Amino acid sequence: MYPAQGVLMKHCKLLLFFMAIMLVAGCPKPTEPEPPAPTIPTELFSTSYSGTKGNLWTIMIYMDGDNDLEAAAIEDFCEIEAGLLAAKNLDSAIESKLNIIVLFDRIPGEDSSNGNWTNTRLYKATPDTNPDVIDSELLFNSPEQNMGDPNLLKNFVSWTKSNFPADNYALVLWNHGGGTRSRSITPTVSTARNKGVKAVCWDDTNNGDTLYLDEVQQALSANFSSGSKLSLLGFDACLMGMVEVAYEFRNLANYMVASMHTEQGDGWDYEYIIKQFSQGSISNYAGTSTFSFAAGNPAPTDFAKMLVYAYEHYIENPANGSNNSGETLSAIDLDSTKMEALKTALFSLANKMEMDAETGKKTSIELDRDDAVNYFSNTLATNNVDGDEIAYPFFDIYDFCYIIANDKNSRSYSDGLKNAAAAVITKLHDILVWAYGDQGGYRGPFGDGTGYYFGANKSGLSIFFSRGNVTYENYSHYAYQWWYRATRITNPGDYGNIDFAESNTGGSVDTWRELMNKWYYSAWGY
After folding, report:
1. 57-338: CATH topology
2. Under DSSP, is residue 414 helix (H, G, I), strand (E, B) or coil?
3. Cβ atoms within 10 Å, residue 386
4. C-alpha dist (Å) from residue 20 to 6, 14, 25
5. N or C end: fewer C-beta atoms under 10 angstroms in the chain?
6. What Cα–Cα distance (Å) separates residue 239 from each residue in 42, 208, 276?
7. Which sequence spans correspond to the domains of the chain?
8. What pTM value is reported for the model?
9. pLDDT tens digits, 182-228
10. Residue 237: what are its φ and ψ, rounded to 5°?
């Protein structure tokens, strides 16, 4: 090869090299493909969770928005996200301490926001700045589920415990509530259930199915035991603050938080609760009582007490429009020994009530019952099948026993009856962690109201006390409450199995249920 030709070839190679560089540099960089969107499983509880999780508290919220409370459920979910944001601003490590897992069911036709989806979804709640949009981590996007099915509750708790293990677990049942059980519109067991609110967690899409008290107990029994209890059981629902409800969970949970009265539709103030959970202190609305606890890791009794503080703080604020309506919330120690002692005291009271009744005091006792604070609406049922006094004859234990123990209406009760009532108050206060009652509410059939209280030395639980001396369509009110003594679970409406409603049918009044049976429907035995 001649030298001149070799130089030319070298130059040609250099030219080609630089042209190639220019060609590459002059072309736009190809767009990188977007990573595929994560596939959200549609089968509930079918996969494990491997993301970030806390290890001190796992709060499970069974949020049943499949009814007329859907908008309130969305509001509360957004409050949870806002609360986590506020908590994270106080403690950047809060998500390594706290998990909030929400099973959320919606319904068509109520609230069209947030994509207007109507199925059932499981979320891990995360901090969010948008107060109106749910932006938490979606774990499962399931077809419609029945929130009234105890197996769904059981599986939700089981999966959450397995995937978000923590030192303490709390479960909040969010929805309508009806105490132990509401009535049917006729006194026969075979009739359809009443259209009114029943038990807790009512699912409209699934024919109004609901979780009965015993069904909740079954679901919890599959996940907890007397040796390994749920730290806290909360009812963000109406009317669940009853001795019958508390006694049902004495062997499964350490503490219960529930309201004797109805709650406003949007329930608890979750933003404030979660923020204060992280802060480690909380005050009542007036600022006259402040309570401190371990920030980000309260003891179960402190968490229960804190929830009562938070509710008082919300209700007593006039800006929220719920004060002076008699609202309540109580934190109850479910220690089985203490709960048995309270039950024994109430059964002894029933026995002494019957003994005084045999001396002509039955009507006097019933008048004092009607004078005690109650938690049904004030409409007396005459020709009104929706009369709440038939459906929800729930009376304040403390108020009733206080009237009897002090013979406030000069009935000349026996010392045995008065002492028995005083003993109930003592045992009630033994299980009260903290309780709040707003000014207002109902006292007897005339709505005299009750005063504000905040502490552990007054009210806290109600009890079923049928006004069975009153009839509706020729039946005693108590005849509509067949479920209180039912032990069968064979028909959709045939449900009882309430632990507190004991009877040995020995022919004497030894329990509260036997008192109701003897006084108002002796055919059921006592």
Report:
1. Rossmann fold (3.40.50)
2. coil
3. 14
4. 21, 10, 9
5. N
6. 35, 18, 26
7. 57-338, 344-430+462-524
8. 0.89
9. 433 344 433 323 433 347 888 889 988 889 899 999 999 999 999 99
10. -160, 160
